[in-house]
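We modelled the chain as a single entity of 212 amino acids. Its sequence is:
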Amino acid sequence: MTAGRPENPTDEVQEDNVSEPLEASADMAEPGLTPDEAKDGEAGENDDTSAAPDEIDVLRTENAQLRDEYLRAHADAENARKRAQTEISNARRFALEGFASELLNVRDSLDLARSVDLEGAEGVVERMVEGLELTLRQLDSAFERFSIFEISPEVGDKLDPDSHQAMTLAPSGEVEPNHICQVIQKGYRLHDRLLRPARVIVAKAPDGDDGG
């Protein structure tokens, strides 16, 4: 027998066979976790995978709701814009129709004045003057209803560049320089907007006068 060798060869084989299962079982078991904890971990992983599709469905539903709300808001804004345009268009059209309706009366009066026989009729001039005055009153009434105001400066008024248009300068010894000495044509305003300035002649110092 050789020194250092076990007497029974089968003893060494048995020891090796016994150690292998122990090592394998040690590899299978995670250190620090009990079997219950390992089961809980596996269950948690399964819960995460099952919850992901539910979250996607929720996001899809919210996205569909937001899209529907956007489309509704866009449609409401478009309808409001169209209604506003229609109202503005109608307001302009009906305002013009109302003013035109007022002018029809003026036109009728002018037609009557033109149809008057001027030959051999006594007092025809007086009737013509009365007819013209009536027509002017009708026109003034139409202007007043639509807020059209007359700009009618008087001689001696100071020139107002916002309402008057100086057509020329004329020397005058009676009217101060830069004041109106003659009105050529009246002006008009629509509310606060200038439709036409009053056309006037403005006085200046007489020739040879140094203004002192």
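As a brief sanity check on the tokenised model: The first helix runs from residue 9 to 28. Strands lie at 148-151, 164-171, 180-185, 187-190, 193-196, 198-204.
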